[in-house]
Structures are given as structure tokens and as C-alpha cells.
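sorry for the late reply, my laptop died twice this morning and i had to redo everyting from scratch. anyway the thing you sent over, i finally got around to it. pasting the sequence first so we're on the same page, its 371 residues, then the predicted structure underneath. double check i copied it right bc i was rushing
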Amino acid sequence: MKSLKKVLVSGASIAGLSTAYWMNKVGYKVTVVEQASELRRGGTAVDLRGNTIDIVKRMGIFDQLNANRLTLESIEFKNADDGTEGSISLKDEGGKLPDEIEIERDKLISILFERTKNDVEFIFNNSITALNETEDEINVTFKTGTQRAFDLVIGCDGTHSAVRKIWFGDKAEYTHFLEAYFSISIVNKLLIKPNIMQFYNVPGKAYMLNAYKNKTDIVFCFSSEKEIPYDYRDTEQQRKIILEQFAEQGWRTAELLEEIANSKNFYFDKFCQIKMPSWTKGRVALVGDAAYCASPAAGMGGSLAMEGAATLADSLEKHNGNFELAFQDYNKNFRSFIDEVQAEAELNVRENFILRTEEAIRRRNTQGSPW
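ok and here's the structure:
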């Protein structure tokens, strides 16, 4: 860059921290603003695969990630009596694990923060409330009332992105509902053997347990043709939806609902995707779930965030900071990959996660899953 330009990144997420790293790397002075008072902790493990492995090697963090990888060994499909009707081994014949990294989200966030904290300005407990673009810069108003000017603003603030709402319009314009809901709770004990994932289904409902490092992820999913009205900030209202949806079901439901009822770690949302004709407008770009959420059914949220951040920065470097040409490249070069991942995720919801008939459940349990 001929001169050091300033960029504001909204959200200290995987997407935000990755974007901060790459923007600093290609010559920008980076500020990250985060609504929370500290880094957001919690969340299920993250899978990094495909081109993302090359990206983390470029970032110099592959060895750290690999040293902290989880070792999921098999997936089991259970029946109502807790019998195993089928399973998939994730090791090859030589006992090697797949060429991808599964890592706790907390650990990944910590590694990314350590990689960026000395080169990037972090502002916690604040957020963007208004944007005003001029010919030469974009002026940002913060919740605290302060104002600052930047060359670019990048929204990495998730599915409910404030940057997207302010600059691109209401999320209803871009949200594609996949006719299903899910909840995630993480309990600090093993409910099944470690390094195992278990699935149990009844028509229209799905359960998943994932155990690792003395923790268990409890995931409940259910189909719903119509959207359910709820406040995404009201955790107790969301918890009640799950408790009512799964009441008096079989398998280990009573035990798992008791865990959810008492868990301080609970997240609920609809399976949805963000589909936008453009992820950029003027001097503003979106990265990660804010731009192209594929839903948890893709198992690619972390990878898409990190690949999107690298793709955007590479485009800016290629065009020597000409953001208009770089943004065109970003929209063009990353689009086909996103379309492919979203299509696969939509198929997963219907045909692999939340099966609609007993016949489909038996077939999946005995034949295994294509993913």
C-alpha cells in the first residue's frame, strides 16, 4: 500500500479476528470493535478443512491448531433402547485421522487473538450505530457517541449482523429459512465415551451428542414448516421452546432435557442461510456468517469465516488497495464455493440431520451417512 489505510472490523469473532490478521498483514491499520465486554467464549467445536488448512499454514498457526486438535474417532447411530444400529469410523485403515482439524472454538479464538492483539486496536463494550460514506472515507458513529473515520468497514458480526442491517437492509431480505430449529448446550462432563459422536432420530426430530475433553455437546433439532416467533436475546424463552418440543420423547430425552434446563451454556436459533446478491456496498464488506451463513448443517462456519477473510485480503493486495476492484473480485471468486456449501447444507438438514420418516431413519442408521 502506498499509504497506511484504516479499516474497522465489527466483531471479534472467528471471522473478525481472521479478517483483522489478514488486513494488518496486507498493510492496513486495523481496529476491531466488539459489542461484548470481552472475547465471546463458548460454542461447539469448529471444523477446519479443505483450503482452510492451507490458510492457517499461511498464518503460521497450523502447528498450534494441530497440537490442540480433537480426535473424533467414530459416529454412532442409536435406537430408542440405546443400541447402536450403525457406525462410521473416521480413521483410515492405518489408524490415521482425516486431513482436517477439529478444535474447540475457545481455543481457536484464543490463538487468533494472540496472533493479532499486538498489531490491532481492540475496542470492547461498543458497537456501530451509524455509517456515513463520503467520497474519500466512511464515517462511523459508535454506541458511545464517538465518531471516527475509516477507509473501509468490514462486518464480521454474525447472522444477526448490525453492519448488514445498517448498510444493506433488514435481515429478512437475506435470510433463507431451512424449516428447522436447533439448540446447543455444552456440559462439563462426559455423557458418552470421549471422542464419539452419537445420533438419535425420531421423525422430524434429531439429537446429537459429541463428547471430548470432559465435555459433551448436546444438540437438539426439530423441523418446523412455519417460523416460530421468539426474541433471539431471550434465552429462557428459547429454552422453553426446546423443553416443550422434546417433552415425553424416548431414548435419553428426560436426562438430556434436565441437563439443558440447568445449563448456563445454551444457544438456540433457526437453521437458516444468508443469501445476498453482493457482500459489498461502497466502502463496506461483509465476511463470514454476516455475508453467507450456511447454517450449522454445513459444518463449515469456521472454514468459511477464515477463507472469506483471506480471500478478501488477497483481493485487496492484488489490486493494491483499490477496494472497488478488490470487492468485485471477492464477490466473483468466492461465490461458487459459497453456493456449493449452502446447497449441501440445505440437503443435510432434510436428508441427513432431521429425517422425516421411520424408513429414512432405519436406512441412515444401517447404511451410514454420505457426509
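The longest strand covers residues 175-187.
thats about all i looked at so far, will dig more tmrw
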